[in-house]
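Appendix B, Record 12. Input sequence as logged:
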Amino acid sequence: TDDVRFHNEAQALKDKGGIIIRLTRQDILSGGDHLSETEQIGIVADYTIEWEPDNHTKLHDALNEVMTVLK
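Logged structural output:
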């Protein structure tokens, strides 16, 4: 899956051996007050990557690092 916003979704992913990678952006502090935005805050990610919108190379490098660890 490409999007996990609820605890039950995160647990289902984990139960199948999946990992959670959280992408964060410093220019976005909140996704709003909807349950789908607030519940995800409590989901523990296996990896967190700080994404800079104009720097796709840095994002790809960070994802490659995660993939290297997982091999």
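The helical segments are 7-15, 35-38, 56-70.
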